[in-house]
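Case 298 in the screening queue. Each case pairs one protein sequence with one candidate compound; here the compound is 2-oxoglutaric acid. For every case the pipeline is the same: read the inputs, emit a complex structure as tokens, and attach any notable structural observations.

Predict complex for case 298.
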Amino acid sequence: MLTDEVLRHPTKVLTEAQRQAYFEDGFVLVEGAVSSDWLERLRDASDAMIARSRAVTENDDTFILEEGHSAETPRLKRVTSPVSHHETFWAFASESPIADAVADVVGPNVKFYHSKLNYKWAGGGQRFAWHQDIQAWPHTNYSPVTVGVYLEDCDMEQGPLRTVRGSHKGELYDLYDENGAWVVKIADHDLNWLQDDMIAHMTGPAGTMFLLNCRTIHGSTTNKSTRGRPLLLNVFSAADAFPYMAQPLPSPYDGAIVRGEPARWAHHDPRPCQIPPDWSNGYVGPWAHQNKDQTTRM
Ligand SMILES: O=C(O)CCC(=O)C(=O)O
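Case 298 output:
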């Protein structure tokens, strides 16, 4: 659905100004978007996952471990596809107002794509180099949007997600390095135009939500604080956007329609998209590549 058509539908969760900001900037940050009831349920589900991780000693399909992880002191980078592992995460993705917020920016027909829970543990945590998401999971159009929700307060010390304002309107960059390795990182020389005042930090109290367009350049630094930064990320698209490469984070809910109706016609955006490695034999996430080069511009 084209933006003009989306705008003909009144918003349900965002204000009109927030929706305009999303289209203009490629993201929007909304404090107090998630109720305390949902937050409590999500934290309980997260605690249950952390408890399960105590029995885990190496990365597997569910847990990506942070250095120093042990049964006594769990340290997680990520729970992959939380919707596959705890019913609360799917209930939140499908029943909570976040899917309505997505409808506000993609139109009334909304499809679920995948989810992840990035912890960024206290005193370290994963950093993410500047990148765009859509090259990792190309779709027939650029409606895919990630909804981020902080389960705890997140300030500048905790390595909040940060975005480059308006970058969704620019080009898609090469996420392979000069040796052809998939590094999920935009090369420094491609970002020589980037100024500090173009960068927005997604900080806020627990329950803060942001919507991030799939073309928007974003990243985050390490967590220098003594507090963790659990960030739940759910990706949705308009129902008329169809992925054409293997799903990197499969779940039983791939392609589930969470609002409105399935599409009978695919919508195609003519702008080209880079193709990722073939994930059909398993996904290798950015942590496998990005922490090798700590000098790179963040
Ligand atoms: O957790 C973060 O800070 C960034 C996550 C991210 O950029 C991604 O998963 O694409």
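Case 298 observations:
- The chain has six helices and twelve strands.
- The chain has one domain: 3-290.
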